[in-house]
Amino acid sequence: KLDPLDAFWEENFGLLCQYRDEKGGDCLVPQGYEIAEEGVRLGLWVYTQRQAYLKSKLSEERMRRLEELGFKLDPLDAFWEENFGLLCQYRDEKGGDCLVPQGYEIAEEGVRLGLWVYTQRQAYLKSKLSEERMRRLEELGFKLDPLDA
């Protein structure tokens, strides 16, 4: 029989698997996300897993299982991926346009996408944007140099 804490972890892990399947492989659960009918605050559980990882309090087995699921343990990587996904949606909705106004917010997601876009350009100008991230943004049609945008 499972310890209650292990049972809680397994239940939430199962719900994360369902979330990923419903979102087409996306494990980027917003922190405020709740599954009302289950009474589960999945976003908070995901946040807690990342905090445990940062504090080296997540078991090797749990890390492995989360990583196999495609879960980003590093919160900064997860934040970048979430915003990149929202930029992709923005581009699709705007017919290929990645020119997000600096003040643009997605209220229901609690995301300031315009600020994130600005931050990516600043990181690029300061040579602090990884090659992989530059490539992914450029493939999207995103102009890294603000003078080109």
Automatic annotation (TrEMBL):
> Domain named Helicase-associated: which ranges?
6-71, 77-142
Task: Report the Pfam families cross-referenced here.
Answer: HA
**Protein name (record):** Helicase-associated domain-containing protein
Please name the source species.
Octactis speculum
Q: What taxonomic ancestry is recorded?
A: Eukaryota, Sar, Stramenopiles, Ochrophyta, Dictyochophyceae
